[in-house]
Design goal:
Layout: E1 3-9, E2 16-21, E3 24-26, E4 35-37, E5 42-49, E6 57-59, E7 68-70, E8 72-73, E9 76-77, E10 92-95, E11 113-114, E12 120-123, E13 134-147, E14 150-159, H1 171-177, H2 181-191, E15 202-203, E16 210-211, H3 212-231, H4 239-242, H5 260-269, E17 273-274, H6 277-282, E18 287-292, E19 302-306, E20 319-324, E21 335-339, E22 350-353
Parallel strand pairs: 1-17, 11-14, 12-14, 19-22
Antiparallel strand pairs: 1-2, 2-3, 4-5, 5-10, 5-13, 6-7, 8-9, 10-12, 13-14, 13-15, 13-16, 18-19, 18-20, 20-21
Length: about 350
């Protein structure tokens, strides 16, 4: 059994999801076994993105213990745009542990190199998973996305505990029990970057989903690539392999294997968990750390103010201008206007402005 432990604040740059087994922190990439039940051909899936959500989360390859974090592009946290008529990711999305798509291997079928990531998997069962879930899945087939010139396999799977899992054994069964899902999946991957100004993605094999036997061969291949990676044999493949953090606690053949105490020290240095800006906003408690820069009664003091984005046009006879002191994902403005109800308040080192929820959009 594996436990996901969140640190930092969701949808903030410091957000991480670490993983534990019964003995302490582990790497989801290196320490969770690929096979959940090899006799039944069930593999473990690590959920990075639950269905219907938009935040692009992924296993961090470069950090010790490889926690899940939100992807960043050009300094901004990434959120996948909605592609009509879909909302966010249309399946539970994640990766298989102990796999690596070697960027120095050109696949003969796709004629493209691997994308330097663990292999991706879309899980189509009825349950909406949680970020950090680990559970056994049955592989049904795979698509071969060509993403910016790299092979990016998208395994198609179903939770082995799903009510219809026993009825699905190959990719042809998906259309029978989930009509239209394969077509929607291809459409989603073709278009999901277009709202960000990127071109339409393309697929190898004309977008045809390959069957389960083909997919299992790909899994065996990327598992062997991972073995060479974690053992150090892939170091000759250049910076791509060297940039992946290989810290683990269970792989005996790995020079990067550490004692449990060292893994525990990594987790102990992670920031403590905090409410996410979105969760706090729903409670009307998003706090931005601001400094008063006007000439009013609270000049020079630090103020904690409820998220001004919730109150875009508050009417007040007295207002003050505040500057953002510490970056916060709930705000992109350097200067904000906030109601100042404290003009008669006694001197204090900090103030909290608690405002009623605005009914305005």
């Amino acid at each position: 059994m594996y436990i996901a432990e969140e640190r930092g604040s969701a949808y903030a740059p410091d957000y991480r999801v670490y993983f534990k087994d019964e003995s302490g922190p582990i790497s989801p990439l290196h320490d969770i076994p690929l096979w959940a039940d090899k006799a039944r051909r069930l593999v473990n899936m690590v959920v990075e993105v639950p269905r219907w959500s938009n935040a692009k989360m992924e296993i961090s390859l470069g950090e010790p213990l490889n926690p899940i974090k939100q992807d960043v592009k050009k300094g901004a946290l990434r959120f996948v745009s909605n592609v009509f008529p879909h909302h966010g990711y249309i399946w539970n999305y994640g990766a298989l542990p102990q796999t690596w798509e070697n960027p120095h291997h050109i696949d003969p079928g796709t004629q493209a190199r691997g994308d330097n990531d663990p292999i991706d998997v879309i899980e189509i069962g009825e349950r909406v998973a949680s970020r950090g879930d680990v559970y056994p899945v049955k592989i049904l087939g795979t698509l071969a996305l060509i993403d910016e010139g790299e092979t990016d396999w998208k395994l198609i799977a179903i939770d082995s505990r799903d009510p219809v899992a026993e009825k699905l054994n190959d990719v042809g069964d998906v259309e029978v029990h989930f009509p239209g899902l394969l077509r929607a999946t291809v459409e989603w991957f073709r278009l999901y970057k277009v709202p960000d100004g990127k071109p339409v993605n393309r697929f190898a094999f004309d977008g045809e989903a390959k069957d389960a036997e083909f997919a299992y061969k790909i899994i065996d291949e990327v598992h062997e690539f991972w073995r060479s990676l974690v053992s150090g044999d892939a170091s000759g493949d250049g910076a791509d392999a060297n940039d992946i953090n290989k810290m683990n606690v269970t792989v005996q053949s790995s020079a990067a294997r550490v004692e449990r105490a060292a893994a525990g020290a990594v987790l102990s240095r992670a920031p403590p968990p905090r409410p996410s800006p979105r969760a706090a906003a729903r409670r009307g408690q998003v706090a931005l750390h601001l400094q008063h820069i006007g000439d009013g009664d609270v000049a020079g003091r630090h103020v904690t103010v409820v998220c001004p984005q919730l109150y875009p046009r508050l009417a007040s006879s007295r207002s003050a201008s505040f500057r953002l002191i510490s970056p916060h994902p709930a705000s992109t403005d350097d200067s904000l206007n906030a109601v100042n109800p404290t003009h008669n308040a006694p001197a204090r080192t900090s103030l909290t402005l608690l405002l009623p929820r605005s009914k305005e959009p």
